[in-house]
Design a protein that fits this description.
The complex is a heterotrimer. Chain A is an all-alpha fold. Chain A has helices at residues 19-44, 53-66, 68-74, 83-86, 96-127, 130-139, 148-181, 193-220, 227-258, 263-271, 275-299, 304-330, 332-335, 356-376, 381-392, and strands spanning 5-6, 342-343. Chain A has a single domain, classed as Up-down Bundle (Formate dehydrogenase/DMSO reductase fold), CATH 1.20.1630. Chain A is 73% helix and 1% strand. Chain B has two domains: 2-51, no CATH class; 60-152, no CATH class. Chain B contains eight helices and no strands. Chain B is elongated, with a radius of gyration of 33 Å. Chain C is of the alpha+beta class. Chain C has one domain: Alpha-Beta Plaits (2-Layer Sandwich), CATH 3.30.70.20. Chain C has helices at residues 5-11, 13-23, 54-63, 124-128, 154-158, 180-183, 190-194, 212-218, and strands at residues 40-45, 72-79, 88-90, 109-116, 134-136, 142-144, 165-166, 173-174, 200-204, 221-222, 234-237. Chain C starts with a helix and ends in a 7-residue tail after the last strand. The chains are: A mainly alpha, B mainly alpha, C alpha+beta. Chains A and C meet through loops of A and strand 3, helix 4, helix 5 and strand 7 of C.
Chain lengths: 393, 156, 244
Amino acid sequence: MSGVEGYMYPNEITLYWSILIVLYPYITGLVAGAFILASLERIFHVEAVKPTYRLALLTALSFLLVAPLPLQFHLGHPERSFEMYFTPHDTSAMAMFGYVYLWYLMAVLVFEIWLDYRRDIVLRSQRRKGMLRWIYKIMTLGSSNISVRSLHIDERVGWVVTLIGIPSAFLLHGYVGFIFGSVKANPWWSSPMMPVVFIFSAMVSGIACVMVLYMAVTRLRRKTIDMQCVDTIARYLFYTFIIDFSLEMLDLAHRVYEADESFRSLDFMVHTKLFFSQIVLQIYVGTLVPLLLLAITQVTKLPEIVRKRLYAIAGGLTLIGIFAMRWNVVIGGQLFSKSFLGYTTYKMALATREGLLMSIALTLLPLGILWVLVKLLPPWPEENGTKAAGMSI
Amino acid sequence: MRVFKDAGHLFRFAGLFLVAFLLFLLVRGRVVPKSFGEYGHYRGNAIRDIAALPVRFAGHQACATCHADVEEVKQKGKHAGVNCEACHGPLAKHTDDPGTLTPPKLDTAALCVRCHAASAARPRNFPQIAEDHFGGVACETCHQPHSPAVDAGGAQ
Amino acid sequence: MTISRRHLLIMLPAAAVAWKYVLAGTPESAPNYRKSEHWWSMLIDIPECIGCGNCVRACQAENDVPDGFFRTWVEMYHVSDENMVNPVVISPDGGKEGFPAVAKEDEGKYFFVPKLCNHCADSPCTQVCPVGATFITPDGVVLIDQTYCLGCAYCVQACPYGCRYIHPEKKVADKCTLCYHRITKGLTTACCESCPTGARQLADLKNPNDPIHEFLKTHSVQVLKPQLATGAKVFYNALDGSVR
């Protein structure tokens, strides 16, 4: 078999966790990060980010709906995935996915969005016609009570849900890190730092994603970008990114200094097969450059247009960098032999169930869902709502 | 009472959860295999399914039941510890019904060197032959495979 | 190696009962195997292994192992004096057709290491299975329920020894069963049956008469990667420190 250097155990030559498994922690991370950003406003009263609150929630929801799909497509027997719910194995980190996922989807995200939008939904169910009317009607769950008192209750309950949501978001993504960090057979993964690094990188990617989406969407709507909002988001992105990067470098320094039995093998891999994705993409292009750009916006007074550009570039590069980080964890962890004597190659398929086209489709799908959600539940209800109401009268 | 009235929609949402949970329990009861949990967190019948797979190697005792003569020769020689199917291959079909499958004649030129071709990687005390060892002459001319020492006599 | 497989077989409690069914060609109906009376393991005597590949071929014939994947395989180690920690290892086609001959003048030492599932008592692979499709039986064999496996490959990642793979047609995890369908009928495994030198011995740790106990007492025996505390039950006699 080509692509093998040195000695691999014969069963290791094929690599089983493909690009879809790279996508899975990436997408889950965006969900957790977007939610944390939304909770900034609600729990920590960072009023400046309010314009992105609803957008962040909808972004989290659309990515969360797609999150299990890469796993599903990767399974050898997708039709058996229900077993994960019916006979979850209590010692398996993966078995908890189904439950953590459902909890987060239904008890946190959907519930919080429903509470926040309930007034709009009820109003729309009364004003819209045809199909839409019925969709909104179903979404009201048959209750059209939007009295001041009931909305006040919604507000209070929503606050509690967000409060529960923060540890839930940590749980959702921390456990994804645990799936990798708890594999003692694999020294590239096995580390108690893994869940922590995953949580912080999730926050970084989620915040960057919402920031870029907000700027793009506002531009598409031909509205003016709320600079105070974007400046605040960028500042939080900068802080979380510094924590994230420090943690990753701590992990790296620890590995280099301890230099255990696996070090020679892993070090060689980082300098050869992973050089581009790890050193170039993840560390330089995806971390140091955006950190530098964000630092510039923090220490200097730049005109609005320059700041916008810098934020957009920094956000885009961050998203690439975090994707590269997921790639290096998932694919990198399978390129070396557990005998530490050799390396294999990952050959990405193109049009198969686990191929490149599928992963591109799965990356774009959340944006499609977001588009539908934004149409259905506009995050900026003011004028849209009145316009629609005016038309239907 | 007012509180309940104004929080009514929350109970509707909770009701959805309850319905979903009951549905889950209902389906779970039907879908989980009966033998699941018999010995541990797995399908107990899986053990029985795997244990019931057919065997391909009959095992040397099955061979010795009919071929006592060969076994006797073998026991006296250097190959006493080598089971029949180590060279003759899996023959459960033959022991099932000796008429249907006759074991094929073996090509000693290919067979013997698998174990005995000289290599420094092999244990030193293991009998090994150089490539030019009586080149071209079939092994069994001098060595009877069931009792390979030369003085035991080649194939009759 | 002095254990005769004949002795071993006679000592297995289930064997005597099962035997007439085996002879009758219907071993699958052999009764009276009690799981609680066994705790299976294997002994590998490295100085006895000649690298013939018989075990690999026998395993494939007995278990329909797909091409390019291995439930058992044999590695040839070459350890040179000056670089003990960095051995050169080969396993062409799992050692199925043997190994290229090594000339005498090559320096360093050579030896063969047969590998298979270690049927770990604290197995990392069964630990991570999300649905209970892989498990350790009451008699100490790690098995896969292929009608229940999702094919998520988490167990493949968790095995430190590279013993698992995803079956290319069945799309489920696959690996050595320690010939569970044979040992429960009083037979030994296909690899042990066909090993010409006795380098591989099936052993029952719960059977007080099993020669393994005497062997473990009198030899330097090691398991693979003991630092991972997997409770591996494949014991290697005279294992070199360079083996991974």
